[in-house]
Amino acid sequence: KFSYPHRVGFGSANPTGKIPLGLKRKGLRIVVTGGAGFVGSHLVDRLIDRGDKVIVVDNFFTGRKENVLHHFGNPNFELIRHDVVEPLLLEVDQIYHLACPASPVHYKFNPVKTIKTNVVGTLNMLGLAKRVGARFLLTSTSEVYGDPLQHPQKETYWGNVNPIGVRSCYDEGKRTAETLTMDYHRGAGVEVRIARIFNTYGPRMCIDDGRVVSNFVAQALRKEPLTVYGDGKQTRSFQYVFDLVEGLMRLMEGEHVGPFNLGNPGEFTMLELAEVVQETIDPNAKIEFRPNTEDDPHKRKPDISRAKELLGWEPKVSLRKGLPLMVSDFRQRIFGDHKEGSN
Ligand code: NAD
Ligand code: UDP
Ligand code: UDP
Questions:
Q1: Cα 128 to Cα 22: distance, rounded to the nearest angstrom
Q2: Which residues does the UniProt record annotate as the domain NAD(P)-binding (predicted)?
Q3: Which of the residues 177, 268, 323, 336 has the least number of beta carbons within 10 Å of its own beta carbon?
Q4: Pocket of ligand 3 (CB under 6 A)
Q5: Rg (CA), the chain
């Protein structure tokens, strides 16, 4: 039997360096679309560690080969360059469907392509799930709540989304992806799971993706001012990627369709986040205010009671604990080693 030495890999999010216990070895054939991206690659690490056979399907729009390079040569790992907007024939047991640009900079770059990825891409992966009888998990987003009128957001909230705004390709795309998922479940009996992911950070995030945590960390490391948009009083809740992956796997293995909010309920204003980045990287980092973007949600915080109760899941890594792990990965990628630029 093939036994692969445990490697957490470059930029691993695993704070312990050990194989996490709790989820037993299954040996399933699993597709991870978007598996060369930030969240997907950490999920792939966990599935490979568990002993599954993993096929990553990615068109490398925002994903990078480097994120999964440490699995090359492992017979349990396969990487296919493929755009999910095109049909795909595979034989698998489970499909984690993550393929979709996630940061505003990337999803606004080609909005029509973002909608196609969410709608046609999700349709294809559901068609695949139906044909082979695989279980399908959709990574939806807290953005389906739009600029929420309910706080914190529960899964029963239907959202307050602008259908014609610059974020709509993503928000409405994901809402349609959820609808398709439920219609394949009800109409074709496909086993489905829906996760609504809240803002997530960690090693392997794209450095210049314009998201607030990656911006602040890269700016502080490069000795540039931290750019706070608007008055900086808008809030977000930041989840460490390792917690998210645990939640996604529990959801896939569990009995409940969802949707489930997966996020860290710790709520921070952007100014508070800037302070945590200053404490972690450079107390002298300056703050610069910039005009805010259109349609920016004022606040966002998950109610995770449902995931706690039905999946036995809650985040374990606080922002102050998780941020340093991301900082060392960014430092290495920006400067190439641990010495230059360190404080
Ligand atoms: P990411 O951009 O790092 O990863 C997305 C991956 O999908 C990339 O590898 C990209 O190359 C691939 N991809 C994009 N379009 C594709 C296509 N048409 N065909 C094949 N591959 C394609 O983003 P991420 O942060 O890892 O997000 C993963 C998923 O989680 C996304 O579906 C995103 O909407 C969802 N999500 C993420 C967050 C977050 O904070 N990171 C929050 C909510 C939801
Ligand atoms: N599909 C796919 N792989 C498969 C099965 C289906 O990519 O293994 C695609 C198929 O090309 C179609 C979509 O999934 O565009 C929906 O498939 P389904 O069978 O549900 O619908 P239909 O083909 O009847 O439109
Ligand atoms: N933001 C900021 N400075 C930046 C990038 C973003 O203040 O350099 C703000 C942005 O206006 C928003 C919040 O941070 O209010 C979160 O933005 P992000 O793009 O990370 O996530 P999303 O808006 O998708 O939740």
A1: 29
A2: 32-324
A3: 336
A4: 104, 199, 211-212, 215, 227-229, 234, 236, 270, 292-293, 296
A5: 19
